[in-house]
């Protein structure tokens, strides 16, 4: 493994007897102890990357808050580390809200999202006394206000505006362009804010342009857009939430924007932009997900087979699209290494595939590896975001376990999903079709005499 490919792995990654260590623990030992596939998260990297957002926001002139977007990684043990580092939580469902609560977040630390929130989602937000609910559509304001009024409470809200800024990222994760399913166009926001029902208190605006955006300047330019929008419509947002979206490098040589520099630049541009339009500087909220957790994660697999087929050598591992959907969804290119000999000179080019029944189940194309053999452990860096959260049990392979590594110690964060877990939800109706599954629980009927 060259010095440059080490950069993709979490802080403190090293070598012991030529083998990869993460968080001071040998990767092959983790695979032996916890099984594979295995998500590994490095606590020190989580902490450092969280602080890279928290510190500049703490110093923001109008106040600031970094809230972690749980969609990137909802594992409570990971969330607990991020909360310790000073982050709040951005949740997009009642389920994510429950995970945040399990990790110890208070309602006052929660921002609640969702482009189509159900009654259950809204009730969960109210139950938790969430600090902010981000409204995505006018009907939601009516629904939330009715539910808040029934409880005799007021709910602080932001309104999500879609500024029609199209960022350079994969189309599937671009959200700020006109016609997006997220948020409301500027005119609709301007019309909604003055008519918000009494049980809702307008606190400010929310914008999120998209994810895996490596052009930090474009991402930061939303501050100026929001200041102009506020001035044009005589709005005084006390809070400005500019969402998440900062990208990371998945391979050596990819652009790798620095979260701390980005957060500091956004703080400065909010101050400048609101001064220019003569409005008070709002409190700034950022909702990073990927840029906090992606580089803290490594996924370990065991090689099952190596097969040559018409010029391609397929290295098949015991995971795949079930634990990493990102290649199939976004064509992401990863840089795997062999955990036991990451610095050995490659003897050829290999395609790394999974064990699922899809030709698209590929983890990496055309990578150099040193004579990979069945039984070897493969380590894939930058897998801490949108891996565990997007995992599926396709082919009824249970989802992987996850561990946190910290200063030479490893502890289980998520236990492996078993076939029993998967089948536990299934309902087998022993009665013939059409006889009514609902009656299956009823005691057998006593026959009654037929009246003439
Ligand atoms: C509203 C909102 N906030 C924050 C995020 C987190 O984005 P990222 O993981 O790119 O930082 C997302 C992701 O799509 C989002 O939709």
Please name the fourth-level CATH homologous superfamily of the largest domain.
Answer: Alanine racemase
**DSSP helical segment count:** 14
Average pLDDT value?
93
Biggest pleated sheet? 9 strands, mixed
CATH class placement of the largest domain = Alpha Beta
CATH fold group of the largest domain: TIM Barrel
Rg from Cα: 25 Å
Query: What form results from the Cα inertia axes?
Result: globular
Bound molecules: pyridoxal-5'-phosphate
Distance between the termini: 89 Å
Helix content: 25-40%
What is the correct CATH architecture of the largest domain?
Answer: Alpha-Beta Barrel
> SS-based structural class?
alpha/beta
Low-confidence stretches: 436-452
**In percent terms, what proportion of residues is strand?**
15-25%
Estimate nothing, just give the exact number of structural domains.
2
User: Quick one: how many beta strands?
Assistant: 20
Family: Belongs to the Orn/Lys/Arg decarboxylase class-II family. LysA subfamily.
Catalytic activity: meso-2,6-diaminopimelate + H(+) = L-lysine + CO2
Binding site for substrate: 290, 326, 330, 358, 386
Function: Specifically catalyzes the decarboxylation of meso-diaminopimelate (meso-DAP) to L-lysine.
Summarize the structure in words:
It is a single chain. α5 packs parallel to α6 (119-128), α6 crosses α7 (138-151) and α10 (222-232) packs parallel to α11 (259-276). The longest helix has 18 residues, at 259-276. The chain folds into two domains: 3-42 and 295-421, Lyase, Ornithine Decarboxylase, Chain A, domain 1, CATH 2.40.37.10; 44-293, TIM Barrel, CATH 3.20.20.10. Helices cover 28% and strands 23% of the residues. The protein has 452 residues and is of the alpha/beta class. It has 14 helices and 20 strands. Strands 4, 13, 14, 15, 16, 17, 18, 19 and 20 form a nine-stranded mixed β-sheet that branches. The protein binds pyridoxal-5'-phosphate. The site of pyridoxal-5'-phosphate (PLP) has 16 residues, from α12.
């Amino acid at each position: 493994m060259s010095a440059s490919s080490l950069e993709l792995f979490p802080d403190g990654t090293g070598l012991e007897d030529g083998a990869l260590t993460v968080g001071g623990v040998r990767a092959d030992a983790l695979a032996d102890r916890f099984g594979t596939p295995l998500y590994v998260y490095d606590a020190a990297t989580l902490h450092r990357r969280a602080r890279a957002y928290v510190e500049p926001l703490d110093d923001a002139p109008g106040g600031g808050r970094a809230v972690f977007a749980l969609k990137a990684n909802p594992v409570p043990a990971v969330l607990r580390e991020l909360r310790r580092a000073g982050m709040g939580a951005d949740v997009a469902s009642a389920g994510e809200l429950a995970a945040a609560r399990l990790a110890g977040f208070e309602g006052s630390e929660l921002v609640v999202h969702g482009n189509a929130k159900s009654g259950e989602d809204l009730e969960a937000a109210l139950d938790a006394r969430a600090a902010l609910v981000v409204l995505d559509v006018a009907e939601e304001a009516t629904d939330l206000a009715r539910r808040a009024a029934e409880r005799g409470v007021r709910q602080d809200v932001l309104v999500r505006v879609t500024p029609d800024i199209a960022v350079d990222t994969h189309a599937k994760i671009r959200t700020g362009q006109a016609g997006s399913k997220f948020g409301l166009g500027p005119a609709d926001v301007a019309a909604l804010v003055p008519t918000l029902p009494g049980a809702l208190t307008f606190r400010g605006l929310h914008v999120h342009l998209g994810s895996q955006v490596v052009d930090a300047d474009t991402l930061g330019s939303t501050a100026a857009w929001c200041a102009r929008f506020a001035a044009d419509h005589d709005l005084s947002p006390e809070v400005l939430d500019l969402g998440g979206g900062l990208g990371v490098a998945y391979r050596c040589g990819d652009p790798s924007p620095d979260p701390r520099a980005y957060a500091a630049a956004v703080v400065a541009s909010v101050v400048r932009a609101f001064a220019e339009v003569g409005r008070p500087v709002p409190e700034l909220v950022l909702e990073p997900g990927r840029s906090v957790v992606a580089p803290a994660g490594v996924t370990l697999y065991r090689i099952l087979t190596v097969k040559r087929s018409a010029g391609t050598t397929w290295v098949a591992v015991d995971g795949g699209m079930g634990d990493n959907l990102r290649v199939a969804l976004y064509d992401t290119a990863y840089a795997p290494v062999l955990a036991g000999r990451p610095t050995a000179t490659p003897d050829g080019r290999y395609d790394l595939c999974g064990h699922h029944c899809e030709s698209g189940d590929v983890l990496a194309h055309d990578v150099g590896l040193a004579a990979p053999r069945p039984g070897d452990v493969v380590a894939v860096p930058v897998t801490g975001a949108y891996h565990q959260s997007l995992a599926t049990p396709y082919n009824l392979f249970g989802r992987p376990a996850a561990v946190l590594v910290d200063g030479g110690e490893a502890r289980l964060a998520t236990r492996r999903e078993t076939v029993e877990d998967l089948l536990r939800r299934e309902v087998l109706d022993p009665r013939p079709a059409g006889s009514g599954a609902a009656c299956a629980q009823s005691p057998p009927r006593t026959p009654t005499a037929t009246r003439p």
